[in-house]
């Protein structure tokens, strides 16, 4: 599906629906800072409708690119665990992982 320009009324409705919060990282956004992210990317069959739009900060929107929400969160989780392991050591991450899985 081809990307189309999102009109001001749609932008405002998305901003209100999401309480001006980036739906990816939770950062509060002004209306001017907000970008519109397709929850299901157009290349994966998403539609250009308000039901498929969410508020996103520019950084998150650019980083997410054409990943689905699930793919994006899986990628972030892998990056987080790798960086934690590199900075804190494998022993720490294994203990943390066991602790989290026990709950």
Note down, in words, how this protein is organized.
49% of the residues lie in helices and 8% in strands. It has helices at 8-17, 58-64, 69-88, 90-102; strands at 35-38, 53-56. Strands 1-2 form a two-stranded antiparallel ribbon. Helix 3 crosses helix 4 (90-102). The radius of gyration is 17 Å and the shape is elongated.
Key words describing this protein structure:
103 residues; mainly alpha; DNA Binding (I), subunit A; 2 domains; 4 helices; 49% helix
What's the arrangement of secondary structure elements?
Blueprint: H1 8-17, E1 35-38, E2 53-56, H2 58-64, H3 69-88, H4 90-102
Antiparallel strand pairs: 1-2
Helix pairs in contact: 3-4
């Amino acid at each position: 599906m081809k990307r189309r320009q999102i009109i001001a009324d749609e932008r405002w409705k998305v901003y209100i629906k999401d309480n001006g919060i980036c739906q990816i990282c939770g950062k509060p956004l002004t209306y001017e800072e907000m970008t519109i992210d397709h929850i299901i990317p157009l290349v994966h069959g998403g539609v250009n409708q308000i039901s498929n739009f969410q508020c996103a900060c520019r950084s998150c929107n650019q980083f997410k690119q054409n990943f689905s929400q699930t793919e994006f969160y899986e990628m972030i989780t892998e990056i987080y665990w790798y960086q934690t392991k590199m900075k804190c050591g494998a022993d720490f991450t294994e203990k943390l992982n066991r602790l989290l899985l026990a709950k």
